[in-house]
Design brief:
The chain is of the alpha/beta class and 418 residues long. Helices cover 31% and strands 25% of the residues. It has 2 domains: 217 residues, Alpha-Beta Barrel (TIM Barrel); 129 residues, Lyase, Ornithine Decarboxylase, Chain A, domain 1 (Beta Barrel). Strands 1, 13, 14, 15, 16, 17, 18, 19 and 20 form a 9-stranded mixed sheet that branches. Strands 2-3-4-5-6-9-11-12 form an 8-stranded parallel β-barrel, surrounded by 6 helices. It has a two-stranded antiparallel sheet with strand order 7-10. Strand 2, helix 4 and strand 3 form a beta-alpha-beta unit. Bound molecules: pyridoxal-5'-phosphate.
């Protein structure tokens, strides 16, 4: 395997282009590199040809991003009627969509069944009964189900979804008894899904997870008496946000996955193998551009107050993490200054980065917050303090395409009483 080809290429766009972009579309603005995200998908497909990669729209539900990823082979994992609608609108075939989520509404299940999704990932007995009832009502013969399992794994990650009591899925030790006693007519058990954690950077753990999930799927299909059609390993591949974090060792991941699939080849045959990824497919392909509005000094600290921050980017405050921040088009001085880079809302939580080394930045300068392609726009507090919503732009070899226009504050405030 060519290791270089397997690594996602981080966002690398010349400063002049970013400066022009900020002029043209205003700030704050998200910019995504289509080449970078499609290359990431292709590298994964080459490294794990046996796997179907599904894009988790929650990371970034922009329809143009979903379409770009789908065109190079990524399918779609959705968790709401809105995301399902986006995926269909992006051109994803219903047979390449799975619907996941701990409490889907009747309307969402109805839409999923009518759209002919490949599978619904069932997370409780109540949900299976609702699907059974709806399928009869709609007149659908069979709905394929994957059972989400809450295993006893202990991932080394920030956001862990398995191990203890959980709202997600069936407890591993109870699933056979709980689901086994149901009298299913329209629901067809076809496999399992185990989404264990997000932001996992340990390839060894991800390989061990694959082994755990395949083995569990084979055991449950025997014990519960269903034909194994699909194994969904969840997702959670991480990206390094800070210098203390190392990138996922994809070469090890690919080799380890191949070994697991070879070991289980007699059981896996034509079984569909799924990995659902959000962050890994888009995080490093996106940047948030913000403009410095004020430079202030207070008690030994220098503050850059920008037009970005919580309303368009909550990750640093919400996840207590930092993103690489860079001054665009500002020549580095001999010695960097250290800045508190923040937004302009009225809360000290509104911090994009603390002690950020930057050259001598001035009011009006442009900053790039990197690795902002995932859980950026989609996880923002867009209405906080009634600012404009940021625009989103796709960068292509041919130029740039506006993929979500800026929403001026006039269009998002509601001043007319009924
Ligand atoms: C069920 C499910 N699948 C996929 C994802 C995507 O995770 P990530 O962005 O870490 O790959 C999530 C994230 O929470 C999830 O809950």
């Amino acid at each position: 395997m060519d290791e270089g080809a397997a690594l996602p290429r981080p966002f690398a766009v010349p400063d002049e282009r970013l400066l022009r972009l900020a002029e043209e579309y205003g700030t704050p603005v998200y910019a995504y590199s289509r080449e970078s995200m499609t290359r990431t998908v292709q590298a994964l497909q080459e490294g794990m040809p046996r796997v179907d990669f599904f894009y988790s729209l929650k990371a970034n539900p922009n329809v143009h991003i979903c379409r770009a990823l789908n065109r190079c082979g990524a399918k779609a994992e959705v968790s709401s009627a809105g995301e399902l609608t986006v995926a269909l609108e992006a051109g994803v075939d219903g047979r390449d969509i799975i619907f996941v989520g701990p409490a889907k509404t009747r309307e969402e299940l109805d839409l999923a069944i009518r759209s002919g999704v490949y599978a619904i990932v069932a997370e409780s007995v109540g949900e299976i009964l609702a699907i059974e009832d709806l399928a009869k009502h709609i007149g659908v013969e069979a709905v394929r189900l994957l059972l989400r399992i809450n295993t006893s794994e202990e991932p080394d990650a920030t956001e862990i979804m398995v191990g203890g009591p959980s709202r997600f899925g069936f407890d591993q030790e109870c699933v056979a008894a709980e689901v086994g006693e149901l009298d299913l007519d329209r629901c067809r058990l076809a496999g399992i899904q185990v989404y264990s954690a997000s932001q996992v950077l340990d390839a060894g753990w991800l390989v061990a997870h694959m082994e755990t999930v395949v083995s569990l799927a084979v055991d449950l299909s025997c014990e519960m008496g269903f034909d194994l059609e699909c194994v969904d390993f969840g997702g959670g591949y991480g990206v390094p946000y800070t210098e203390q974090e190392s990138p996922l060792d994809v070469a090890n991941l690919f080799d380890g996955a191949a070994a697991v699939f070879a070991k289980w080849s007699d059981k896996l045959g034509s079984v569909r193998l799924i990995v659902e990824l959000g962050r890994y497919l888009v995080a490093e392909s996106g940047v948030l551009l913000v403009r410095v509005l004020r430079v202030k000094e207070s008690r030994g600290k220098r503050f850059l107050i920008t037009d970005g921050g919580l309303p368009c980017f909550t990750r640093p405050a919400f996840m207590h993490t930092s993103h690489p921040i860079r001054a665009v088009g500002v020549r580095p001085g001999a010695v960097p200054n250290y800045f508190e880079v923040c937004g302009r809302t009225c809360t000290p939580l509104d911090l994009l980065g603390s002690d950020v080394p930057l050259p001598d930045v001035d009011e009006g300068d442009l900053l790039a917050v990197h690795k902002a392609g995932a859980y950026g726009f989609s996880m923002s507090m867009l209405n906080f303090m009634s600012f404009d919503w940021p625009a989103e732009v796709m960068l292509t070899a041919e130029g740039s395409q506006l993929i979500r226009p800026r929403q001026p504050y006039q269009s998002v405030i509601s001043v007319q009483l009924p």
